[in-house]
Protein backbone atom coordinates (compact mmCIF):
# COMPACT_ATOMS: atom_id res chain seq x y z
CA UNK A 1 0.00 0.00 0.00
CA UNK A 2 1.25 3.49 -0.90
CA UNK A 3 1.56 5.46 2.31
CA UNK A 4 1.23 9.13 3.07
CA UNK A 5 4.58 10.87 2.59
CA UNK A 6 5.56 13.74 4.89
CA UNK A 7 8.71 15.77 4.35
CA UNK A 8 10.38 16.60 7.66
CA UNK A 9 13.63 18.24 8.67
CA UNK A 10 16.15 15.63 9.84
CA UNK A 11 17.40 17.26 13.06
CA UNK A 12 19.36 14.06 13.64
CA UNK A 13 19.35 11.80 10.58
CA UNK A 14 18.84 8.08 10.70
CA UNK A 15 16.53 5.26 9.68
CA UNK A 16 13.88 3.70 11.90
CA UNK A 17 10.37 2.36 11.79
CA UNK A 18 7.66 1.69 14.31
CA UNK A 19 4.09 2.25 15.41
CA UNK A 20 3.24 5.89 16.07
CA UNK A 21 2.35 7.11 19.54
CA UNK A 22 0.97 10.63 19.15
CA UNK A 23 0.04 13.50 21.43
CA UNK A 24 -0.37 17.24 20.99
CA UNK A 25 0.79 17.73 24.59
CA UNK A 26 4.50 18.34 25.18
CA UNK A 27 6.18 15.80 27.44
CA UNK A 28 8.87 15.91 30.11
CA UNK A 29 10.81 12.65 30.32
CA UNK A 30 11.87 13.45 33.87
CA UNK A 31 8.85 12.47 35.89
CA UNK A 32 7.18 11.44 32.68
CA UNK A 33 9.09 8.43 31.32
CA UNK A 34 10.13 5.28 33.13
CA UNK A 35 13.44 4.41 31.45
CA UNK A 36 13.41 0.94 32.98
CA UNK A 37 10.29 0.00 31.00
CA UNK A 38 9.56 2.70 28.42
CA UNK A 39 6.23 3.57 30.03
CA UNK A 40 4.99 7.16 29.98
CA UNK A 41 4.33 7.95 33.62
CA UNK A 42 3.27 11.61 33.63
CA UNK A 43 -0.18 11.11 35.15
CA UNK A 44 -1.37 14.42 33.73
CA UNK A 45 -0.31 13.52 30.17
CA UNK A 46 -2.77 12.00 27.66
CA UNK A 47 -0.24 9.23 26.88
CA UNK A 48 0.06 8.23 30.56
CA UNK A 49 0.28 4.43 30.81
CA UNK A 50 1.34 3.93 27.17
CA UNK A 51 4.67 2.25 26.43
CA UNK A 52 6.89 4.07 23.93
CA UNK A 53 9.67 1.47 23.68
CA UNK A 54 10.49 0.88 20.01
CA UNK A 55 7.66 3.16 18.87
CA UNK A 56 7.82 6.40 16.90
CA UNK A 57 7.00 9.00 19.55
CA UNK A 58 5.23 12.04 18.11
CA UNK A 59 5.05 15.00 20.54
CA UNK A 60 5.47 18.73 19.78
CA UNK A 61 8.44 19.34 22.11
CA UNK A 62 9.74 18.68 25.62
CA UNK A 63 8.27 20.42 28.60
CA UNK A 64 9.71 21.25 32.00
CA UNK A 65 12.77 19.67 33.48
CA UNK A 66 16.25 19.97 32.03
CA UNK A 67 16.76 16.32 33.04
CA UNK A 68 14.71 15.02 30.08
CA UNK A 69 17.90 14.39 28.09
CA UNK A 70 19.48 12.36 30.88
CA UNK A 71 16.40 10.17 31.26
CA UNK A 72 16.23 9.55 27.53
CA UNK A 73 19.93 8.63 27.49
CA UNK A 74 19.29 6.03 30.21
CA UNK A 75 16.45 4.63 28.13
CA UNK A 76 18.71 4.37 25.07
CA UNK A 77 21.34 2.50 27.07
CA UNK A 78 18.66 0.22 28.52
CA UNK A 79 16.95 -0.40 25.15
CA UNK A 80 13.64 1.13 26.25
CA UNK A 81 13.77 4.33 24.18
CA UNK A 82 11.47 5.18 21.27
CA UNK A 83 12.87 4.09 17.87
CA UNK A 84 12.52 7.66 16.62
CA UNK A 85 11.01 10.94 17.82
CA UNK A 86 8.99 13.36 15.70
CA UNK A 87 8.41 16.93 16.90
CA UNK A 88 7.15 20.24 15.56
CA UNK A 89 10.12 22.41 16.51
CA UNK A 90 13.79 21.47 16.66
CA UNK A 91 13.97 20.06 20.16
CA UNK A 92 17.36 20.64 21.72
CA UNK A 93 16.73 18.20 24.58
CA UNK A 94 15.86 15.22 22.40
CA UNK A 95 18.64 16.07 19.94
CA UNK A 96 21.27 16.14 22.66
CA UNK A 97 20.26 12.69 23.92
CA UNK A 98 20.77 11.35 20.41
CA UNK A 99 24.14 13.10 20.00
CA UNK A 100 25.45 11.90 23.38
CA UNK A 101 24.17 8.36 22.77
CA UNK A 102 26.10 8.44 19.51
CA UNK A 103 29.23 9.63 21.31
CA UNK A 104 29.03 7.13 24.21
CA UNK A 105 27.33 4.07 22.73
CA UNK A 106 27.19 4.63 18.97
CA UNK A 107 23.40 4.42 19.35
CA UNK A 108 21.88 7.66 18.07
CA UNK A 109 18.22 7.73 17.03
CA UNK A 110 16.54 9.81 14.31
CA UNK A 111 14.83 13.03 15.33
CA UNK A 112 12.57 14.67 12.76
CA UNK A 113 10.85 18.07 12.91
CA UNK A 114 7.58 18.46 10.98
CA UNK A 115 5.46 21.48 10.14
CA UNK A 116 2.38 21.97 12.35
CA UNK A 117 0.04 20.81 9.61
CA UNK A 118 2.04 17.67 8.75
CA UNK A 119 2.39 16.89 12.45
CA UNK A 120 -1.41 16.64 12.65
CA UNK A 121 -1.49 13.99 9.87
CA UNK A 122 -0.01 11.21 12.03
CA UNK A 123 -2.35 9.21 14.28
CA UNK A 124 -1.55 6.83 17.10
CA UNK A 125 -1.32 3.31 15.69
CA UNK A 126 -0.05 4.37 12.24
CA UNK A 127 3.00 2.50 10.93
CA UNK A 128 5.73 5.10 10.40
CA UNK A 129 8.93 4.63 8.46
CA UNK A 130 11.61 7.26 9.00
CA UNK A 131 14.05 7.77 6.12
CA UNK A 132 17.59 9.14 6.28
CA UNK A 133 16.61 12.42 4.57
CA UNK A 134 13.82 13.21 7.05
CA UNK A 135 11.01 11.81 4.93
CA UNK A 136 8.29 9.90 6.78
CA UNK A 137 6.16 7.21 5.17
CA UNK A 138 2.94 6.83 7.13
CA UNK A 139 0.57 3.86 6.70
CA UNK B 1 23.34 28.73 7.49
CA UNK B 2 26.77 27.63 8.61
CA UNK B 3 28.44 27.76 11.95
CA UNK B 4 31.54 29.95 12.13
CA UNK B 5 34.06 28.76 14.68
CA UNK B 6 36.85 30.89 16.16
CA UNK B 7 40.45 29.73 15.87
CA UNK B 8 40.38 28.59 19.48
CA UNK B 9 37.09 26.73 18.94
CA UNK B 10 38.70 24.88 16.06
CA UNK B 11 41.74 24.02 18.15
CA UNK B 12 39.51 22.64 20.89
CA UNK B 13 37.59 20.64 18.31
CA UNK B 14 40.80 19.15 16.94
CA UNK B 15 42.00 18.11 20.39
CA UNK B 16 44.73 20.72 20.93
CA UNK B 17 43.31 21.40 24.42
CA UNK B 18 43.09 17.75 25.45
CA UNK B 19 40.66 14.90 24.82
CA UNK B 20 37.95 16.00 27.30
CA UNK B 21 37.76 19.46 25.76
CA UNK B 22 37.64 17.81 22.34
CA UNK B 23 34.68 15.64 23.36
CA UNK B 24 32.87 18.60 24.95
CA UNK B 25 33.50 20.80 21.92
CA UNK B 26 32.34 18.18 19.44
CA UNK B 27 29.02 17.81 21.30
CA UNK B 28 28.76 21.61 21.55
CA UNK B 29 29.41 22.10 17.82
CA UNK B 30 26.97 19.35 16.83
CA UNK B 31 24.26 20.95 18.98
CA UNK B 32 25.09 24.48 17.79
CA UNK B 33 24.50 23.20 14.24
CA UNK B 34 21.23 21.56 15.26
CA UNK B 35 20.02 24.81 16.79
CA UNK B 36 21.02 26.90 13.79
CA UNK B 37 23.64 29.01 15.61
CA UNK B 38 25.94 31.14 13.46
CA UNK B 39 28.65 31.26 16.10
CA UNK B 40 29.57 30.43 19.68
CA UNK B 41 29.89 33.06 22.40
CA UNK B 42 31.97 33.34 25.59
CA UNK B 43 30.30 32.54 28.88
CA UNK B 44 31.57 33.56 32.30
CA UNK B 45 29.70 31.08 34.47
CA UNK B 46 27.99 27.70 34.35
CA UNK B 47 25.69 25.56 36.47
CA UNK B 48 25.81 21.81 35.93
CA UNK B 49 22.51 19.99 36.39
CA UNK B 50 23.76 16.55 35.40
CA UNK B 51 25.20 15.94 38.87
CA UNK B 52 22.01 14.08 39.74
CA UNK B 53 22.43 10.33 39.47
CA UNK B 54 19.59 8.82 37.48
CA UNK B 55 21.18 5.71 36.08
CA UNK B 56 24.45 4.36 34.76
CA UNK B 57 24.41 6.22 31.43
CA UNK B 58 24.69 9.60 33.17
CA UNK B 59 27.40 8.20 35.41
CA UNK B 60 29.33 6.77 32.45
CA UNK B 61 29.14 10.15 30.72
CA UNK B 62 30.51 11.99 33.77
CA UNK B 63 33.25 9.43 34.34
CA UNK B 64 34.23 9.42 30.66
CA UNK B 65 34.77 13.20 30.78
CA UNK B 66 36.53 13.01 34.16
CA UNK B 67 38.83 10.19 33.05
CA UNK B 68 39.81 12.25 30.00
CA UNK B 69 40.95 14.96 32.42
CA UNK B 70 38.05 17.42 32.03
CA UNK B 71 38.44 20.78 33.81
CA UNK B 72 35.94 23.64 33.72
CA UNK B 73 37.06 26.88 32.08
CA UNK B 74 34.68 29.19 33.99
CA UNK B 75 33.35 29.33 37.59
CA UNK B 76 30.87 26.46 37.71
CA UNK B 77 28.35 25.56 40.40
CA UNK B 78 26.89 22.08 40.85
CA UNK B 79 23.23 21.18 41.09
CA UNK B 80 21.70 18.80 43.63
CA UNK B 81 23.44 15.50 44.10
CA UNK B 82 21.86 12.09 43.86
CA UNK B 83 22.42 11.42 47.54
CA UNK B 84 22.76 13.20 50.89
CA UNK B 85 26.16 11.84 51.85
CA UNK B 86 25.54 12.45 55.55
CA UNK B 87 21.96 11.34 56.07
CA UNK B 88 21.10 8.75 53.40
CA UNK B 89 21.26 5.87 55.84
CA UNK B 90 18.33 7.35 57.79
CA UNK B 91 16.12 6.80 54.76
CA UNK B 92 15.21 4.07 52.28
CA UNK B 93 18.14 4.77 49.91
CA UNK B 94 19.60 1.47 48.58
CA UNK B 95 23.37 1.25 49.26
CA UNK B 96 24.20 0.59 45.59
CA UNK B 97 22.32 3.73 44.57
CA UNK B 98 24.22 5.74 47.20
CA UNK B 99 27.50 4.36 45.89
CA UNK B 100 26.78 5.19 42.23
CA UNK B 101 25.41 8.63 43.11
CA UNK B 102 28.55 9.31 45.10
CA UNK B 103 30.74 8.28 42.15
CA UNK B 104 28.88 10.78 39.98
CA UNK B 105 29.45 13.54 42.56
CA UNK B 106 33.17 12.73 42.64
CA UNK B 107 33.40 12.81 38.84
CA UNK B 108 31.91 16.31 38.61
CA UNK B 109 33.88 17.59 41.59
CA UNK B 110 37.12 16.42 39.96
CA UNK B 111 36.57 18.94 37.16
CA UNK B 112 37.45 21.92 39.36
CA UNK B 113 33.84 22.90 40.01
CA UNK B 114 32.32 24.57 43.09
CA UNK B 115 30.43 21.90 45.06
CA UNK B 116 27.36 23.95 45.91
CA UNK B 117 25.02 20.92 45.51
CA UNK B 118 21.96 23.06 45.11
CA UNK B 119 19.15 23.71 42.65
CA UNK B 120 19.08 27.34 43.85
CA UNK B 121 22.60 28.52 42.87
CA UNK B 122 21.16 32.02 42.45
CA UNK B 123 20.83 32.19 46.25
CA UNK B 124 24.53 31.51 46.81
CA UNK B 125 27.50 33.86 46.51
CA UNK B 126 27.79 32.61 42.91
CA UNK B 127 24.63 34.50 41.92
CA UNK B 128 25.23 35.88 38.40
CA UNK B 129 24.76 39.53 37.51
CA UNK B 130 22.52 41.43 35.10
CA UNK B 131 23.47 40.83 31.48
CA UNK B 132 26.04 38.14 32.27
CA UNK B 133 26.27 35.36 29.65
CA UNK B 134 26.04 31.99 31.40
CA UNK B 135 25.21 28.37 30.56
CA UNK B 136 22.89 26.91 33.15
CA UNK B 137 21.04 23.65 33.49
CA UNK B 138 18.13 23.02 35.93
CA UNK B 139 14.84 24.50 34.77
CA UNK B 140 14.06 26.49 37.93
CA UNK B 141 17.56 27.99 38.03
CA UNK B 142 17.40 28.92 34.34
CA UNK B 143 14.10 30.79 34.68
CA UNK B 144 15.28 32.60 37.82
CA UNK B 145 18.61 33.65 36.28
CA UNK B 146 16.95 34.97 33.12
CA UNK B 147 13.86 36.56 34.63
CA UNK B 148 14.69 37.82 38.11
CA UNK B 149 18.39 38.61 37.60
CA UNK B 150 18.50 39.37 33.87
CA UNK B 151 21.49 37.08 33.29
CA UNK B 152 21.38 35.26 29.96
CA UNK B 153 21.14 31.54 29.45
CA UNK B 154 19.28 29.32 27.06
CA UNK B 155 17.21 26.48 28.51
CA UNK B 156 20.07 23.99 28.52
CA UNK B 157 19.63 20.30 29.16
CA UNK B 158 21.66 18.10 31.44
CA UNK B 159 24.97 17.01 29.94
CA UNK B 160 25.16 20.04 27.67
CA UNK B 161 25.82 22.43 30.57
CA UNK B 162 29.09 20.63 31.32
CA UNK B 163 30.23 20.93 27.68
CA UNK B 164 29.78 24.71 27.94
CA UNK B 165 31.58 24.78 31.31
CA UNK B 166 34.59 22.88 29.93
CA UNK B 167 34.93 24.94 26.76
CA UNK B 168 33.77 28.29 28.20
CA UNK B 169 31.54 28.64 25.13
CA UNK B 170 27.85 28.38 24.27
CA UNK B 171 25.87 28.61 21.03
CA UNK B 172 24.85 32.21 20.25
CA UNK B 173 21.14 31.41 20.17
CA UNK B 174 17.85 32.01 21.93
CA UNK B 175 17.88 33.88 25.22
CA UNK B 176 21.57 34.78 24.93
CA UNK B 177 20.47 37.37 22.35
CA UNK B 178 18.53 40.53 23.23
CA UNK B 179 16.02 40.23 20.38
CA UNK B 180 14.86 36.83 21.59
CA UNK B 181 14.10 38.08 25.11
CA UNK B 182 11.02 40.11 24.17
CA UNK B 183 7.68 39.14 25.70
CA UNK B 184 5.24 37.25 23.48
CA UNK B 185 2.01 37.02 25.49
CA UNK B 186 0.47 39.36 28.06
CA UNK B 187 -1.17 38.07 31.23
CA UNK B 188 -3.24 40.68 33.08
CA UNK B 189 -4.11 40.00 36.69
CA UNK B 190 -7.65 41.14 37.46
CA UNK B 191 -9.46 40.98 40.78
CA UNK B 192 -6.49 39.42 42.59
CA UNK B 193 -6.31 41.02 46.05
CA UNK B 194 -3.09 42.48 47.44
CA UNK B 195 -3.46 40.08 50.40
CA UNK B 196 -3.41 37.10 48.05
CA UNK B 197 -0.47 38.60 46.12
CA UNK B 198 1.42 38.90 49.39
CA UNK B 199 0.81 35.27 50.37
CA UNK B 200 3.38 32.61 49.52
CA UNK B 201 0.88 30.18 47.95
CA UNK B 202 -0.13 32.66 45.23
CA UNK B 203 3.16 32.27 43.34
CA UNK B 204 3.26 28.51 42.77
CA UNK B 205 -0.38 28.66 41.62
CA UNK B 206 0.23 31.55 39.21
CA UNK B 207 3.40 29.81 37.99
CA UNK B 208 1.56 26.55 37.37
CA UNK B 209 -0.98 28.39 35.21
CA UNK B 210 1.74 30.45 33.54
CA UNK B 211 3.62 27.34 32.39
CA UNK B 212 0.51 25.73 30.97
CA UNK B 213 -0.73 28.76 29.07
CA UNK B 214 2.66 29.99 27.85
CA UNK B 215 4.21 26.68 26.79
CA UNK B 216 7.42 28.02 25.21
CA UNK B 217 6.25 31.64 24.61
CA UNK B 218 7.72 34.35 26.86
CA UNK B 219 4.97 35.62 29.19
CA UNK B 220 4.66 39.13 30.58
CA UNK B 221 2.68 39.53 33.82
CA UNK B 222 0.94 42.84 34.47
CA UNK B 223 -1.16 43.96 37.40
CA UNK B 224 0.99 43.31 40.46
CA UNK B 225 0.10 45.57 43.37
CA UNK B 226 3.07 44.46 45.49
CA UNK B 227 6.72 43.66 44.77
CA UNK B 228 7.29 39.97 45.49
CA UNK B 229 10.51 38.78 47.16
CA UNK B 230 13.12 36.41 45.71
CA UNK B 231 11.55 33.33 47.26
CA UNK B 232 8.14 34.14 45.84
CA UNK B 233 9.62 34.68 42.37
CA UNK B 234 11.61 31.47 42.79
CA UNK B 235 8.38 29.56 43.49
CA UNK B 236 6.70 31.18 40.48
CA UNK B 237 9.52 30.30 38.11
CA UNK B 238 9.93 26.74 39.38
CA UNK B 239 6.22 26.13 38.88
CA UNK B 240 6.17 27.64 35.39
CA UNK B 241 9.22 25.61 34.35
CA UNK B 242 7.50 22.42 35.53
CA UNK B 243 4.09 22.77 33.92
CA UNK B 244 5.57 24.44 30.84
CA UNK B 245 8.87 25.20 29.15
CA UNK B 246 9.18 28.74 30.53
CA UNK B 247 12.81 29.88 30.63
CA UNK B 248 12.08 33.59 30.94
CA UNK B 249 9.15 35.64 32.18
CA UNK B 250 8.79 39.35 32.68
CA UNK B 251 6.81 40.94 35.50
CA UNK B 252 6.05 44.60 34.88
CA UNK B 253 7.54 46.85 37.54
CA UNK B 254 9.33 43.92 39.18
CA UNK B 255 11.82 42.14 36.90
CA UNK B 256 14.77 44.07 35.41
CA UNK B 257 13.85 43.88 31.73
CA UNK B 258 10.26 44.99 32.36
CA UNK B 259 10.14 48.52 33.78
CA UNK B 260 7.08 49.00 31.52
CA UNK B 261 4.87 46.77 29.37
CA UNK B 262 6.40 48.31 26.24
CA UNK B 263 9.93 47.53 27.43
CA UNK B 264 8.98 43.93 28.23
CA UNK B 265 7.69 43.47 24.67
CA UNK B 266 10.60 45.50 23.19
CA UNK B 267 8.01 47.68 21.49
CA UNK B 268 6.14 44.79 19.83
CA UNK B 269 2.49 43.98 20.43
CA UNK B 270 1.50 40.91 22.43
CA UNK B 271 0.52 37.89 20.30
CA UNK B 272 -2.22 37.20 22.81
CA UNK B 273 -3.64 38.91 25.89
CA UNK B 274 -5.09 36.77 28.66
CA UNK B 275 -7.04 37.97 31.68
CA UNK B 276 -6.04 36.01 34.78
CA UNK B 277 -8.88 36.14 37.31
CA UNK B 278 -9.71 34.26 40.50
CA UNK B 279 -11.64 31.58 38.61
CA UNK B 280 -8.51 30.68 36.62
CA UNK B 281 -6.33 30.76 39.72
CA UNK B 282 -8.71 28.58 41.74
CA UNK B 283 -8.70 26.01 38.93
CA UNK B 284 -4.86 26.04 38.78
CA UNK B 285 -4.73 25.60 42.55
CA UNK B 286 -7.08 22.60 42.38
CA UNK B 287 -4.85 20.97 39.77
CA UNK B 288 -1.89 21.00 42.12
CA UNK B 289 -3.63 18.75 44.60
CA UNK B 290 -3.55 15.11 43.72
CA UNK B 291 -5.06 13.73 46.90
CA UNK B 292 -8.76 13.50 47.57
CA UNK B 293 -8.91 13.14 51.34
CA UNK B 294 -7.27 14.52 54.45
CA UNK B 295 -4.77 11.71 55.04
CA UNK B 296 -1.22 12.90 55.64
CA UNK B 297 2.00 10.92 56.05
CA UNK B 298 4.60 13.56 55.34
CA UNK B 299 5.17 17.24 54.64
CA UNK B 300 7.93 18.02 52.11
CA UNK B 301 9.43 21.49 51.73
CA UNK B 302 12.36 22.90 49.82
CA UNK B 303 11.76 22.52 46.10
CA UNK B 304 13.67 24.53 45.02
CA UNK B 305 16.04 24.32 47.98
CA UNK B 306 15.09 26.31 51.08
CA UNK B 307 16.74 29.72 51.41
CA UNK B 308 17.87 31.39 54.61
CA UNK B 309 14.74 33.57 54.55
CA UNK B 310 12.53 30.50 54.21
CA UNK B 311 14.27 28.83 57.17
CA UNK B 312 13.55 32.01 59.15
CA UNK B 313 9.87 32.05 58.21
CA UNK B 314 9.52 28.36 59.04
CA UNK B 315 11.29 28.84 62.40
CA UNK B 316 8.72 31.50 63.35
CA UNK B 317 5.79 29.35 62.24
CA UNK B 318 6.84 26.26 64.20
CA UNK B 319 8.11 27.99 67.34
CA UNK B 320 6.78 26.23 70.43
CA UNK B 321 4.87 23.67 68.34
CA UNK B 322 5.36 19.97 67.88
CA UNK B 323 4.43 17.96 64.81
CA UNK B 324 2.03 15.01 65.07
CA UNK B 325 3.87 11.78 65.86
CA UNK B 326 2.58 9.97 62.77
CA UNK B 327 3.61 12.70 60.32
CA UNK B 328 7.11 13.17 58.97
CA UNK B 329 8.25 16.71 58.18
CA UNK B 330 11.13 17.16 55.77
CA UNK B 331 13.04 20.25 54.65
CA UNK B 332 15.51 20.01 51.77
CA UNK B 333 18.23 22.59 51.25
CA UNK B 334 21.91 22.92 50.51
CA UNK B 335 24.47 22.21 53.17
CA UNK B 336 25.78 25.80 52.96
CA UNK B 337 22.34 27.33 53.47
CA UNK B 338 21.57 24.92 56.31
CA UNK B 339 24.86 25.82 57.97
CA UNK B 340 23.95 29.51 57.71
CA UNK B 341 20.50 28.80 59.13
CA UNK B 342 22.11 27.07 62.07
CA UNK B 343 24.47 29.99 62.69
CA UNK B 344 21.52 32.36 62.47
CA UNK B 345 19.69 30.34 65.13
CA UNK B 346 16.81 29.21 62.89
CA UNK B 347 17.39 25.47 63.08
CA UNK B 348 16.71 25.02 66.78
CA UNK B 349 12.96 25.67 66.54
CA UNK B 350 12.72 23.67 63.31
CA UNK B 351 14.35 20.64 64.85
CA UNK B 352 12.44 20.97 68.15
CA UNK B 353 9.26 20.87 66.06
CA UNK B 354 10.36 17.44 64.86
CA UNK B 355 11.44 18.36 61.33
CA UNK B 356 14.17 16.45 59.55
CA UNK B 357 16.59 18.17 57.20
CA UNK B 358 18.12 16.62 54.11
CA UNK B 359 20.92 18.47 52.37
CA UNK B 360 22.37 18.51 48.87
CA UNK B 361 19.76 16.31 47.24
CA UNK B 362 16.04 16.34 46.49
CA UNK B 363 13.33 13.80 47.28
CA UNK B 364 12.50 13.77 43.59
CA UNK B 365 15.94 12.50 42.65
CA UNK B 366 16.96 10.19 45.46
CA UNK B 367 14.91 7.08 46.37
CA UNK B 368 14.65 8.04 50.04
CA UNK B 369 10.94 7.72 50.79
CA UNK B 370 9.76 4.33 52.05
CA UNK B 371 6.68 2.70 50.47
CA UNK B 372 4.43 3.20 53.50
CA UNK B 373 4.62 6.96 53.00
CA UNK B 374 1.84 7.61 50.49
CA UNK B 375 0.18 10.93 51.29
CA UNK B 376 2.37 14.01 50.96
CA UNK B 377 1.75 17.71 51.41
CA UNK B 378 3.91 20.55 50.08
CA UNK B 379 4.04 24.29 49.42
CA UNK B 380 5.91 23.68 46.16
CA UNK B 381 4.14 23.45 42.80
CA UNK B 382 7.21 21.72 41.41
CA UNK B 383 6.95 18.92 44.00
CA UNK B 384 3.20 18.80 43.45
CA UNK B 385 3.70 18.52 39.72
CA UNK B 386 6.32 15.77 39.73
CA UNK B 387 5.56 13.68 42.84
CA UNK B 388 2.71 11.63 41.33
CA UNK B 389 4.81 10.52 38.30
CA UNK B 390 8.26 10.32 39.86
CA UNK B 391 7.40 8.95 43.29
CA UNK B 392 3.95 7.44 42.75
CA UNK B 393 2.62 9.38 45.78
CA UNK B 394 -0.58 11.36 46.36
CA UNK B 395 0.13 15.00 47.04
CA UNK B 396 -1.73 18.03 48.37
CA UNK B 397 -0.59 21.60 47.81
CA UNK B 398 -1.05 24.58 50.13
CA UNK B 399 0.74 27.44 51.88
CA UNK B 400 3.69 26.98 54.21
CA UNK B 401 1.47 27.91 57.18
CA UNK B 402 -1.07 25.24 56.16
CA UNK B 403 1.73 22.68 55.89
CA UNK B 404 2.74 23.43 59.48
CA UNK B 405 -0.85 23.38 60.79
CA UNK B 406 -1.49 20.09 59.02
CA UNK B 407 1.68 18.52 60.39
CA UNK B 408 0.56 19.44 63.92
CA UNK B 409 -2.98 18.18 63.44
CA UNK B 410 -1.96 15.01 61.62
CA UNK B 411 -4.25 15.64 58.66
CA UNK B 412 -4.44 17.98 55.71
CA UNK B 413 -5.94 21.37 56.56
CA UNK B 414 -6.17 24.19 54.03
CA UNK B 415 -7.11 27.78 54.75
CA UNK B 416 -9.41 28.88 51.92
CA UNK B 417 -9.94 32.50 53.08
CA UNK B 418 -7.83 34.26 50.43
CA UNK B 419 -8.99 31.97 47.62
CA UNK B 420 -12.75 32.40 48.11
CA UNK B 421 -14.86 33.87 45.30
Can you characterise this structure?
The complex is a heterodimer of chains A (139) and B (421). Chain A is an alpha/beta fold and 139 residues long. Chain A has a single domain, classed as Glucose Oxidase, domain 1, CATH 3.50.30. Chain A has three helices and ten strands. In chain A, α2 links the parallel β7 (84-87) and β8 (111-113). In chain A, α1 runs parallel beside α2 (92-105). The longest helix of chain A is centred in the C-terminal third of the chain and has 14 residues, at 92-105. Chain B is α/β, with parallel strands linked by helices and 421 residues long. Chain B is built from 16 helices and 14 strands. Chain B has a five-stranded parallel sheet with strand order 12-11-10-13-14, sandwiched between helices. In chain B, β13, α15 and β14 form a beta-alpha-beta unit. The longest helix of chain B has 16 residues, at 19-34. Chain B is globular, with a radius of gyration of 22 Å. The mean pLDDT of chain B is 95.
List keywords for this structure.
heterodimer, A: 139 residues, alpha/beta, Glucose Oxidase, domain 1, eight-stranded mixed beta sheet, two-stranded antiparallel sheet, globular, B: 421 residues, Aconitase, domain 3, five-stranded parallel beta sheet, four-stranded parallel beta sheet
- Tally of domains of chain A: 1
Provide the spatial order of strands within the biggest beta sheet of chain B: 12-11-10-13-14
Strand content of chain B: 5-15%
Structural class of the helix and strand makeup of chain B? alpha/beta
* CATH H level, superfamily name of chain A: Phosphohistidine domain
User: What overall geometry of chain A do the principal axes of the alpha carbons give?
Assistant: globular
**Share of helix of chain A, binned:** 10-25%
Q: C-alpha Rg of chain A, in Å?
A: 13 Å
CATH architecture of the largest domain in chain B: 2-Layer Sandwich
Largest sheet of chain A: 8 strands, mixed
Rg calculated over all Cα atoms of chain B: 22 Å
Q: Would you report the number of β strands of chain A?
A: 10
* CATH hierarchy class name of the largest domain in chain B: Alpha Beta
Number of strands of chain B: 14
Q: Helix and strand string of chain B, N-terminal first? A: HHEEHEHEHHEEHHEHEHEHEHEHHEEHEH
